[in-house]
Specification:
alpha/beta, 16 helices, about 45% helix, about 15% strand, elongated
Length: about 400
């Protein structure tokens, strides 16, 4: 089913930048003529939608339809003379013009009716601030409350690393007693979720065994599950670890691998557990060696579409999926800053958005090379920008300061 869906997918998203230079650069990247860019930019002040890889006949129809309604569509210059087989497109117009175009596209060939549905979905998702509250007898009241709160404000997820080589904590909470005390303290400071991790995923880190990970996390989970009144999430990509954690009181799976493992998808479907699907390029050990993208936002969005479809097809309820663009996981400093700046684009997918910028290397670099312990203000700045651009959950170390 997923493969069939992807055959007619165009990665449609609302393009949220209103910076004229950025929009011009996007048109140039698509392949639009320079003279055409100067004419079209005037129509880029209303609503913009980007789609990827349309076949040339469909591109020409789309261009004609947008122009006929008073909008415009930036396409590759060689698509006009059919020298380019496919082209990405930047559609520009008012919401009324889009409504008229989408209505007409449903009667057109070349898969344009599917494109119309995808664009409509992206626009509706982007414009909606309503997060669906799970309505399932297997969902705990704690999780329902969490979703209800997400409709009012951005939630704060407190990070609890119980591994010896965390980039930020350096084994500070490796001792279960210290970890339990810190978890309780974060809740008192205002954390809405506690995220427990037993394996470092910092750049250059090596994986640990299932047994070692369980030895680190289980004593902590078993102690705090009955002592805190907020959901606990498990930061792992191993289904065996996630299952043990859920059986001991954890209620959210936070997977840096984006539920790549079928066993993890099946577990989430079986337990009706909220899942956080993150994008990562490569593996933690090598992900920062030379990250490269053909189109950063489009590439991440296509990945998240794939993984969310896989999860839904495995039986995970759509309303239990949360997405994370993976800041710091296989991205350059400029990539990370662009993701924060363009976070609103990801609203087009229709899922709550989590970001994790806390104390990360790019924050230190952007603030003059500050050490991990000096990155609170930089983290707070990225959180403020993320919240302004649509983040529903922020994952942080310094709960008290960020809640303030």
């Amino acid at each position: 089913m997923a493969d069939n869906l992807r055959k007619t997918r165009y990665n449609a998203r609302v393009y949220t930048s209103r910076c004229e230079d950025e929009i011009k650069a996007e048109m140039a990247k698509i392949g639009a003529e320079k003279a055409g860019i100067e004419k079209m930019i005037r129509k880029a002040q209303h609503f913009i939608v980007k789609v990827d890889g349309l076949r040339t006949p469909a591109v020409l129809i789309l261009k004609e339809e947008m122009l006929s309604k008073g909008g415009d569509c930036a396409i590759h210059r060689d698509a006009i003379i059919c020298k380019e087989e496919r082209s990405s497109c930047l559609l520009m117009g008012t919401l009324k013009q889009f409504a008229q175009v989408l209505s007409d596209l449903r009667a057109q060939p070349f898969g344009l009716k599917y494109l119309a549905d995808e664009i409509r979905s992206a626009i509706d998702n982007y414009r909606s601030d309503n997060i669906q509250i799970p309505d399932n007898p297997f969902i705990s009241n704690c999780i329902k409350t969490m979703y209800s709160e997400m409709n009012r404000r951005t939630l704060v997820m407190g990070i609890l690393n119980v591994n010896p080589d965390s980039f930020s904590d350096g084994g500070r909470y490796e001792n279960p007693i210290n970890a339990i005390e810190h978890a309780i303290k974060m809740v008192e400071e205002g954390a809405d979720i506690i995220d427990i991790g037993g394996e470092s995923t910092r750049p250059g880190s090596d994986p640990v065994t299932v047994d070692d990970e369980l030895k680190r996390i289980m004593p902590v989970i078993e102690k705090i599950a009955g002592k805190v009144n907020v959901p606990i999430s498990i930061d792992t990509y191993k289904a065996e670890v996630a299952r043990e954690a859920i059986n001991s009181g954890v209620s959210i799976i936070n997977d840096i691998a984006g539920l790549a493992a079928i066993e993890m998808r099946e577990l989430a479907a079986e337990k009706k557990t909220p899942v956080i699907l993150m994008h990562m390029q490569g593996e933690p050990a090598t992900m920062q060696s030379a990250p490269e993208y053909s189109d950063l936002i489009s590439d991440i969005m296509a990945f998240l579409r794939d993984r969310t479809e896989d999860a839904v097809n495995a039986g995970v309820p759509k309303e239990l999926i949360i997405i994370d663009p993976g800041i710091g996981f296989g991205k350059t400093i400029n990539d990370n800053l662009k993701i924060i700046n363009r976070l609103s684009d990801f609203k087009s997918l229709g899922f709550p958005i989590l970001i994790g910028t806390s104390r990360k290397g790019f924050v230190g670099k952007a603030t003059g090379g500050l050490s991990v312990s000096e990155r609170v203000e930089g983290t707070a700045a990225t959180v403020a920008l993320g919240v302004n651009n649509g983040a529903n959950i922020v994952r942080v170390h310094d709960v008290k300061e960020i809640v303030r």
